Amino acid sequence: MTLLDARASNPTTGGPSFSLKNRIVRCVWNVTWLLLASWTPPMMRTWRCFLLRIFGAQVASTANVYSTAKVWLPSNLVLGEHACVGPRVTVYNMAKITLNERALVSQGAHLCAGTHDIEDKHFQLKTRPITLGSRAWIAAEAFVGPGVSIGDGAVLGARGCTFRDLEPWTVYAGNPARVLRPRTPVHDTSKAASPEQTGQRI
């Protein structure tokens, strides 16, 4: 377990929340991404995914992570077929974050798998995984909080914010996110990626 007990580490006075090993791995990862990936053009997705795999990510061969995305810890990332992490997305995966087949996270969105216990005087960090179902879409600059499960085909509109699960094939927007309308389920069996799955801006 890399998460430290706040009673001993004292994060409120500058102490760490994670083990030394975790911090070293993340430091090496950040330098690697900065030097070898952050400048790469969109067509070099295979190279970027290769780097993520070296650091422990589970990435399908057809997945895509843009060069300006920020992945906190690759070993806590799972990307299914044609899943896409768009430009400037923050994947704050202190716990596992999973994007299933054709799930899309658009530019500037934030997936946050950690929070703090505000009732604890030591401000203990708590982590909970996030899962995006197949064909789910987190639109530009939206926020998904710890422990949230986004159902298959669900949509969280631009700058929306959710700390609770979203139902499948339903469109949400706002802060906090509220239901706007149903979304028609997609049953296309084609293996070709649509524009949204290739990470084009929407």
Question: What report would you give on this structure?
Answer:
The protein is α/β, with parallel strands linked by helices and 202 residues long. It has a single domain (16-182), classed as Hexapeptide repeat proteins (UDP N-Acetylglucosamine Acyltransferase, domain 1, 3 Solenoid), CATH 2.160.10. The protein is 15% helix and 25% strand. The protein contains 3 helices and 19 strands. The chain has helices at 6-9, 20-36, 45-54; strands at 58-59, 64-65, 70-71, 77-79, 84-85, 90-92, 97-99, 104-105, 110-112, 114-116, 125-127, 130-132, 137-138, 143-144, 149-150, 155-156, 161-162, 170-173, 178-182. The strands form 4 sheets. It has a 7-stranded mixed β-sheet. A 5-stranded parallel β-sheet has the order 1-4-7-12-15, with helices on one face. The chain has a 5-stranded parallel β-sheet with strand order 3-6-9-14-17, with no helix packed on it. β18 (170-173) and β19 (178-182) form a beta hairpin. The model is unreliable at 192-202 (pLDDT under 50).
